[in-house]
Amino acid sequence: MRWLLQLRSPALLAPTTASAQRYRPDEGKELAPGVRRIDLSKRASEIPAYKSVMLVDLVFQPKSKFANPSMATDMVCHCLKRELYINQGMGKPFVAKTGDVWTCKKGMPETTENRSDSVVGIMRIALLAT
């Protein structure tokens, strides 16, 4: 019974928050001025429609922008840190705030912009490669 009381300790029940790793301004591969891609992990996919899944972070310095005219693969995107302005074309702009998730399908356009004057934004992406 004593172990049950230990499990109910407030320290063990307190919610935790994930925090983004801080990246150097020169880390990863530059995609556009102020936008860098950091490859995190890659593995074979267990989903039959996809050959592999890759996890990457896109780091947006203040006032930076990246336009992708055509997505190479399906993907799931997550605003890991701060706020990003997303425009997927055809009247689909939105603001992604910390914790927001959205999807992109192969072939669709997307422009991502960090409109902040002073804060870095991070988008985490799960790329689903065929």
Q: What descriptive keywords fit this protein?
A:
mainly beta, 4-stranded antiparallel sheet, 2 helices, globular
Low-confidence stretches: 3-16
Strand line-up in the sheet with most strands? 1-2-3-10-5-8
Order of helices and strands: HHEEEEEEEEEE
Query: First CA to last CA: what distance?
Result: 52 Å
Beta-strand fraction estimate = over 45%
Main sheet, how many strands, which sense, barrel? 6 strands, antiparallel
Shape, please?
globular
> Which percent range fits the helix content?
under 10%
Number of strand segments: 10
Radius of gyration: 18 Å
What class do helices, strands and sheet pairing give?
mainly beta
Oligomer: single chain
Instruction: Give the helix tally.
Output: 2
Mean pLDDT: 85
Q: Explain this structure to me?
A:
By secondary structure, this protein is mostly beta strands. The protein is 8% helix and 48% strand. It contains two helices and ten strands. It has helices spanning 2-7, 10-13; strands at 29-32, 35-44, 52-60, 65-68, 74-81, 83-87, 93-97, 101-104, 110-113, 121-129. The strands form two sheets. Strands 1-2-3-10-5-8 form a six-stranded antiparallel β-sheet, with no helix packed on it. β6 and β7 (93-97) form a beta hairpin. The protein starts with a helix and ends with a strand.
